[in-house]
Amino acid sequence: MTIVQRMPRFLVAIVAVALALVLAIPLTGAKGGNSAVAKACQKGGWQQLASSDDPYTAFASQDACVSHGAQGGTVVALQVESRGEAQVYCEDALAGQYLAETDRVLFECDAPVNFLDAAWNTLFSMCDDASNEVQRLRSILRSWGELTTAVFICEKL
């Protein structure tokens, strides 16, 4: 076999190696994390950013922000707290579900019953302060299998 006959095999081998390298470089670079998030977290940017899971709480540090992005988490602009006192108490302290005002209901909080007594007293005072109109707080117990929740409803009379 002459050099000319070996040349096509040699070129095919070189092209195959080159193609393998070209395809491998972007894949290894992709494992490095999210550089756009890392850049956004730098120079104090982390103080105005939050996880999409909790948009009301800023990252504790630049490292926490970068790490969240590197692990595939979504970073969003920090949201200003716009929840009222009753909503914050229902969602954060009671781990409940808050429903906003309607025509007759000022607020409703559906929460686990293990907070029943403390929740009643706190929500009663919030209901009393909710508006200048006459209102009342009532509660309803709901059970689904082993789960029991109390629904606190602050309504206009």
TrEMBL record:
Q: What is this protein called?
A: Secreted protein
* Native species: Microbacterium awajiense
